[in-house]
Amino acid sequence: MATQQSQSIQTLLEAEKEAAKVVQQARQFRVQKLKDARTQATKEIEEYRRSKEQEFKAFEASHAGNTQSASVAIDKETDVKRKEITAQYNKSKDQVVKKLLDRVVLVKPELHRNLKKVEA
């Protein structure tokens, strides 16, 4: 009976050691899976970041051209308006100067409307 008990105890100890090995392997497996998941997530994040940066650069490039073309169009429009104003100035300056001189030189003396006539 003692041998049977020692065999039972020995079997239990072996089973316990085997269970400890299984638990240890499960822990290692779990830790490895977490490391793999973290690495994979980091790779996916970097890939996503690169794709978004490319999209942004493409968007920026397409809209930068629009800004430059708009700037060129505004510059052209400004030049055209400036030339029109200069042409009007050159056309009308003599008439304006003549009208101003006529107003200054040709004065019609009149009494002010608020001045009452004094009769003697």
TrEMBL record:
InterPro entries: V-ATPase_G. GO terms for cellular component: vacuolar proton-transporting V-type ATPase, V1 domain. It comes from the Eukaryota. Keywords: Coiled coil, Hydrogen ion transport, Ion transport, Transport. V-ATPase is a heteromultimeric enzyme made up of two complexes: the ATP-hydrolytic V1 complex and the proton translocation V0 complex. Belongs to the V-ATPase G subunit family. Subunit of the V1 complex of vacuolar(H+)-ATPase (V-ATPase), a multisubunit enzyme composed of a peripheral complex (V1) that hydrolyzes ATP and a membrane integral complex (V0) that translocates protons. V-ATPase is responsible for acidifying and maintaining the pH of intracellular compartments and in some cell types, is targeted to the plasma membrane, where it is responsible for acidifying the extracellular environment. NCBIfam families: V_ATP_synt_G. This is V-type proton ATPase subunit G. It comes from Antrodiella citrinella. The lineage of its organism: Eukaryota, Fungi, Dikarya, Basidiomycota, Agaricomycotina.
